[in-house]
Write a structure and sequence with these properties.
Layout: E1 5-10, H1 15-21, H2 26-34, E2 36-41, H3 48-57, H4 61-64, E3 70-71, H5 74-77, E4 83-84, H6 95-101, E5 106-111, E6 122-126, E7 138-139, H7 163-187, E8 192-197, H8 199-212, H9 216-243, E9 246-250, E10 254-257, E11 260-262, H10 264-270, H11 287-291, E12 299-303, E13 307-310, H12 325-339, E14 342-343, E15 346-347, E16 349-354, H13 355-358, E17 370-374, E18 379-381, E19 398-400, E20 409-412, E21 414-421, E22 433-434, H14 438-446, E23 450-451, H15 465-469, E24 474-475, H16 491-503
Length: 508
């Protein structure tokens, strides 16, 4: 069986928002009506780097090692200073590795935080996280010349605090990513094609309130992009029908409004869990992590979706929390105090999960120790890498999400999953699906073996009879492809990527 699969990732596509577009998007409506249509759980937290890594590898962050835009290689460098992730941090094989190992051609476009590109049989185009002005963002390298004029991200000097310019840039980058995706898809004789269309995510972060409020100018850009996307999808579906291929549309997470921000490190300071050694460092680059008194700090926060880490002895360079009983007691104490947290007299914490329950695998201890969901994600943690909020450590714990640097919309735990074509049972309901199920399902559709270490399962309920009846084949230890370039940023590149992430609102 030599099937072909086309994957279209709508980064940040909220299922309810996409369903509202179905009357205006006939091809998307056809896919939803004739194929399988439903939702898919994201990772915890529902942040794009771990979610995309899980979608592509079929394993949880404890196995692939991607938790955020940054990682903290503390044991290796004996420092609390974070480093941007590269493809070297992806420690589990991706779909491209399985395809290459089986001699199948694959093409990937705009993959986030996966630079430098892996050497695949086909092509690979890095997205967010690729250094600007470099031809090292594609495999093969010669492909970069044909993409010199492409604009795949809005964050290139156009920041969220200039909404009019950002709206224009979103329209430009949204059109460019569709054009590039179609051009590369048509040019390659591929068994597997995947594109990451990040327009919905970037757009909703800033314009969510305008979008649901039906602001005319904002709505016009949104509607225009979805009209172009639907036309692109229609051409994909026509070719898939003729070739007997399968088309899968998915999102890495959902979306919803942001109402308030929680100063988590200010709260930890006020409760005595975090102390400062050198307050004069606050406001400088990496000011938060360099100002903290680590020998007397037991917990700190680094994730806007509620990630709290213990300063664990043996893991952090200056860890003061003993593993085992002491760490467990600290997690319980923090959980209890978080559950008692109030904002405007109302409880704000929906759930506190322990990282060692959520994550499993060789890299499980690299993730957060506590995962806190605040009011259905309507409240985010304010994480300022420069530590400006600790200049006023006794200030308010909660602020309205009304500042120019604040998101108006943010991620939710449930994304979208739709499938159509030769490998899909007509009118099939999507079962309880998780991001980690995409990879094994695609491998099964392609007739490729699955690694026994996968966490996800084949979603046989939505497959056509011939695919559903075939038992998956499992093998041991598929190897990850090597990158065709160095796997580390230099100082200037890292600063430039960090600035781009700030322009997109991912960093403060």
């Amino acid at each position: 069986m030599n099937e072909r699969v086309i994957l279209i990732g709508l980064d940040g596509a909220e299922p309810s928002m996409v369903e509202a577009m179905l009357p205006r998007c006939p091809n998307l409506a056809r896919l939803a009506g004739e194929g399988a249509w439903g939702t898919m759980a994201s990772t915890l937290p529902p942040l794009s780097p771990p979610a995309w890594a899980t979608l592509m590898t079929g394993v949880n962050p404890g196995k692939h090692g991607v938790y955020d835009f940054y990682h903290m290689p503390q044991r290796a460098q004996q420092s609390y200073v974070r480093r941007l992730i590269t493809s070297a941090v992806w420690r589990a094989p991706g779909l491209w590795d399985y395809a290459t190992a089986a001699g199948r051609r694959s093409g990937f476009v705009n993959m986030p935080m996966c630079w430098p590109p892996p050497a695949v049989d086909g092509f690979f185009v890095c997205g967010l996280g690729a250094p600007a002005g470099s031809d090292g963002f594609t495999h093969p390298p010669a492909l970069a010349a044909s993409l010199a004029d492409a604009v795949l991200e809005p964050g290139d000097g156009t920041t969220m605090d200039d909404p009019a310019a950002f709206l224009e840039r979103c329209a430009l980058s949204g059109a460019s990513m569709l054009e590039v995706s179609e051009r590369l898809w048509r040019a390659g004789d591929l068994d597997l094609f995947c594109t990451a269309l990040t327009f919905p995510d970037r757009f909703q972060h800033l314009f969510w309130t305008n979008l649901v409020g039906r602001d005319g100018a904002v709505r016009a850009v949104w509607d225009a992009w979805f009209a172009s996307f639907d036309a692109f999808l229609g051409r994909i579906m026509a070719a898939a029908h003729d070739a007997g291929s399968t088309v899968i549309v998915f999102s890495d997470h959902g979306f919803g409004p942001v109402e308030r921000y929680f100063h988590v490190n200010r709260w930890l300071f006020q409760r005595g869990y975090l102390t400062l050694r050198d307050p004069t460092r606050l406001g400088a680059a990496d000011g938060l992590l360099t100002a903290i008194d680590w020998e007397h700090t037991r917990a700190y926060g680094l994730g806007e979706y509620g990630d709290i880490r213990l300063n664990l002895r043996g893991r952090e360079p200056l860890g003061c929390v003993a593993p085992g009983t002491h760490a467990r007691a600290l997690r319980i104490a923090l959980t209890t105090e978080l559950q008692q947290l109030r904002d405007r007299g109302e409880p704000v914490v929906d759930e506190v999960l322990e990282g060692n329950v959520v994550y499993h695998g060789a890299h499980a201890d690299e993730g957060a120790d506590l995962l806190v969901r605040l009011r259905d994600r309507r409240v985010l943690c304010l994480i300022d890498g420069r530590g400006n909020d600790l200049r006023d450590p006794n200030g308010p714990l909660f602020v309205d999400a009304t500042g120019p640097q604040h998101y108006r919309g943010a991620h939710r735990d449930t994304g979208l999953l739709g499938a159509w074509g030769a490998g899909i049972r007509p009118d099939a309901p999507v079962p309880a699906a998780h991001a980690q199920d995409l990879c094994p399902t695609v491998l099964h559709l392609l007739g490729l073996p699955l690694d026994r270490g996968l966490d996800g399962r084949v979603l046989r309920e939505l497959l056509s009879d011939v695919h559903a009846a075939r038992d998956p084949e499992y093998v041991e230890g598929v190897s990850a492809a090597t990158a065709d370039a160095r796997a580390a940023y230099d100082a200037a590149e890292e600063a430039a990527i960090a600035e781009q992430l700030r322009q997109l609102g991912y960093l403060e």
